[in-house]
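Next up, a chain.

===
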Amino acid sequence: MVSRKGNPVHGWVILDKPEGVTSSRAVGVVRRVFQAAKAGHGGTLDPLATGILPIAFGEATKTTSFAMQGSKRYSFTLAFGAQTQTDDREGEIIHESDVRPGRDAIMALLPHFTGRIDQRPPIFSAIKVDGARAYDLARRAIADGKPDLPALDPRPVTIERLELDAVTEGAADFTVTCGKGTYIRSLARDIALAAGTVGHVSRLRRLSVGPFDEKDAISLAFFERLEHSAAAFEHLKPVTSALDDIPAVPVAAEEAAKLRHGQTLPALGPSAQARFAAVATSEVGVALAGSVPVALVTVRSGQLQPLRVFNL
């Protein structure tokens, strides 16, 4: 998250990140257009990847985790025949194979990569190992001339849907819907290995993140052309945009004032239980005073308690 002097802008911008740009640079471009004091993004995209990069401003940064908990959808191309250090086309080739699997062979593998699976993250990732980033360990190993890079431990991830879209000479196109923590580079690497060959991601596009998809997306080129922020605000989505999947709890003005000061509301009476029932079921809700978000709330010990208060 970036926090500097600037204007108190609150809300979401859904950016269509182009290839060759880091996520942090893309956020910087959009933040400057809005002259926003605080900005962060929902899920880093590698420079070679394109697609949906949700950018949160101001109080919307308090809802980023809800966007990231949702499913993500990608389209990608798996190029067969070469495995790279980074599991994408930017890394040096470390293994090669002449095997090129056909459609039937690839289709037979898809059920093995659907559902809850164990996945070994790519060594060039931001995962921390004993306090250090994995990509720093990998770069250090390369600098020291070590031929074998350190491997990360497998971790469970969820692949909700995996579709084979096309098979061309030496490559295959896929669309995947997956849960938090899934690495598409690892998925591509493992599909190739299961097919008796090696491979890497040569193209990657993120189609959606949680409630955000391509219909909401604005190109980085659009923001780069803007000389002032007035036109940009037409594309600013509400702070609550990432909270579509949690219940809304209407509160009166005096109740909103209490929540904003960290106070609780009684949730034991029959009317209160009816009002807050959805929060008790889902564990987290958003209290709204009209259309203005007041706080993220939960029900504990017979009280509606604020978890995160919005300063709006």
